[in-house]
Amino acid sequence: MTGHLQRVLLLIGSPRGAQSTSASLGSYLLSEMEKQGAETGVINLYQNMKSAEGRNDLVDAVNQADILVFASPLYIDCLPAPVIAALEMIRDRRMVAQPPWRQRLIALVNSGFPEPGQNATALAIYRQFAQEAEFDWAGGLAFASGAVINGKPLGDVGFVARNARKSLGIAAEALARGGPVPSGAVKLADKPLVPAWMFLLNANRSWKHKVKDPAVWKEMEKRPFRKTT
Amino acid sequence: MRAVVLDGSRQGDQTSRTAREVLEEQLKENGWKVRSLLLRDMDIRPCDGCYRCWTEHPGLCSGTDQGRMIPGLYITSDLAVFLSPVTFGGYSYQLKKALDRMIPNVLPFYEKSDGEIHHRKRYDAYPKLIAIGVLQKPVQSVEMIFRALVDRNAINFYAPAHAAGFVYGTEDSDTIRLGVRTILSRVGVMA
Asked: Which residues 85-104 of A are in CB contact (within 8 Å) with B?
């Protein structure tokens, strides 16, 4: 520990909130940090960004934290729009006032694709935000095949999430010591949860279960728009 | 030929305004029909991740706001232009709230292409893509992130050609005009 109780704030940036894979990953990191003696809190960015009161609460919570953990899905190759809105607001308000102590920031990004590299741009954006908003960048972890976790508590996901759990455990220990996310945690997070062939087979089949209406299934590849001259 | 300009600028951003006016002027001079959307003035709510555009009415967003028209405007265009202040290397909230609504334009199913897994195409043809980032002055680090993001979007939006470029707050309108012309020429939309 670095000498005082660390206050860690998880900021969930998914429309599914507490039911999201972002929450699964972030909550697991928080639980590991609690084992290291940290005090933790959670903010749902989608909810808080909807009202002036929520936005103020968000900034107050950010200003009380030692470590911020942003956890979000990959949307169109970067962060979901409400997360960008939150980052813009936090940066702008920190240009007016910010706590006198150094605050650190870690980002967790997950996507539906099996290659963690597809999350690289999102992590770069978080890193740039940390620099512009004057947080110390503690590192980022990219998790692929978020659908395998599908919002379940990470401890309940079983064997396929073993590397994700190990990665977050290593990251929590390092953060508690005041260090950045170690490369070992990054490498473990980068390991695909399932092989690409298995991902393709299962992911494409899974839609059959999600589509309740057989008539819709027949029209899955419908093209509702066409060009006119 | 149709172009759609998605303007994600903030209120009072004169550089973005000049860039959009120059862009519209140059496209029209070259025979394009241009539809510009000033996104900050539109009722576009964030995508709520319901996936009903895949599971209930394929290809159509279930939202009732103006965001539901974005996929159609995009896919029926020959050129799409993203205009945005460069925000931590990426797009502004105003632009991103529109882009997040575009997932109906691909299928939920995945396929492997060029060694990576992506959502499959829903349509045969997709528009060329240009992204113009607005910055007060050149900043190499954020420009690199922005270019990488546009490259990724071009892959996932199946753009047959794409280019990213920048205009700066320190530039006069003639310099912005030259910059926009250069970006347009990179995707072959200038006569």
From this structure: 85, 87-88, 91
Sign of CA dihedral B137, B143, B147, B149: negative
- Complex ipTM over 0.85: yes
Q: How confident is the model at residue A2 (pLDDT cuts 50, 70, 90)?
A: very low
- pLDDT tens, residue by residue, B3-53: 999 999 999 999 999 999 999 999 999 999 999 999 999 999 999 999 999
Structural tokens at position B171: 């530039």
Please determine, for residue B122, whether its predicted confidence score (pLDDT) is greater than 80. Answer: yes
- Locate the domains of chain A by residue range: 7-194
CB A71 within 8 A of CB A12: yes
Output the domain CATH number for residue B41: 3.40.50.360
B157: closest CA of chain A, how far (Å): 9
Contact assignment for B76 to A228 by CB distance below 8 Å: yes
Options 3.40.50.300, 3.40.50.360, 3.20.20.80, 3.40.50.1950; CATH of A7-194: 3.40.50.360
B6 touches chain A (CB under 8 A): no
Contact residues for B41 (Cβ-Cβ < 8 A; gap 6+):
none
Q: Considering only residues 58 to 77 of chain B, which have any Cβ-Cβ distance to chain A shorter than 8 Å?
A: 58-60, 71-72, 75-76
3-state SS, A63-109, equals: HHCCEEEEEEECECCECCHHHHHHHHHHHHHHCCCCCCCCCEEEEEE
Q: Rounded to an integer, what distance in angstroms lies between the CA atom of residue B191 and that of residue B189?
A: 7
A38/chain B closest Cα distance in angstroms: 29
pLDDT digit string, tens, across residues A133-178: 999 999 999 998 667 788 899 988 888 889 999 999 999 999 999 9
Considering only CA atoms, which of A104, A119, A105, A124 is closest in space to residue A189?
A: A119
Please judge whether A221 and B122 are an interchain contact, meaning their C-beta atoms are less than 8 angstroms apart: yes
Number of domains chain B contains: 1
Residue type, A12: I
Of B118, B153, B51, B55, the closest CA to residue A112 belongs to: B118
